[in-house]
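Sequence of Receptor-like protein 56 (Coffea arabica).
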Amino acid sequence: MDLSQNKFSGPLPTCFNNISFGRGQFSTDAFFAYGRYSVIDPSSINLPFLAMEIISSEYYITTFSEQEKVIFTTKSRSEHYAGNILNFMSGLDLSCNQLIGAIPPEFGDLRHIRALNLSHNYLQGSIPSRLSMLNQIESLDLSYNDLSGEIPSELASLNFLSIFNVSFNNLSGRVPDTGEFATFDDSNYRGNPGLCGPLLKRSCNPFAPHPENVGDQDIEVDGAIDVAAFAWSFFASYMVIVISLVVSMVFLY
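Predicted 3D structure, token representation.
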């Protein structure tokens, strides 16, 4: 379902969780009709849109119905798909609209969805931890919104997540660094100065100096010591001169 680049406004409807393709509510018969054939010459079988896979010396014959090709975007790639295989390549794209409000936790009920793109909107609030129920998700793009709070650590359980983008929000706290999140880098989190963690090379301790600024701080400290030493030496020299003048005047009179 591609509703991107429109002028839809208002909050995200919670009823999106009733979308059938995102809940796996489809018949497997609509996707394939398979049988096990013992054949010597596969070319003797004439079936339209034939897909074959050799398993244990037997052929699994899969037929797809002819449908119009559809462009499906996931993992930052757009591919053409045709036939009922689209039942297994479900995605929801609401990017580049004027949507506001929070991300409904009900989106976590779309457990069979492969891609979810809510980027380039005006969404606020936190990232629902229930999105960790999207156990088939491969691409999750929440960038260019006004989301705040921490990235739920539960998302680290998404084993198929290869594209994750929360850039240019107002997120804060420690970035998950386990599971698939260990493969991400700072390009996934740009524009969130409140985020921290080893992946970002930014300490979560507010009193710890940033590694890149340690040298500058040493220079500043050394400079401060030099100024203090100069001030004390100048004061001591001034007092010596004053005392010498006083002593000289006493002896003269």
